Amino acid sequence: MKLLKHISLVGIAVGVLSSFTIAETNVYICKGKYSKKYHYNKSCRGLSNCSTDIYKVSLEEARDLQRTLCGWED
Description:
Elements: H1 2-24, E1 26-30, E2 37-38, E3 54-58, H2 59-64, E4 68-69
Parallel strand pairs: 2-4
Antiparallel strand pairs: 1-3
């Protein structure tokens, strides 16, 4: 029974930590009309054609904006 409680607590801790990590990760996006990607690196070549400023946002916010990871970084 102790092992089962330990496994449950570890599972909860991992879930909390992974949620915290995603929310705290910052990424870069272009806010151009046709922009659809997010980037971990501000100097990613996928941002080289950005027609607006490059913005630092949370990964969660980028995903809320329906952005997906840049193909140069996956």
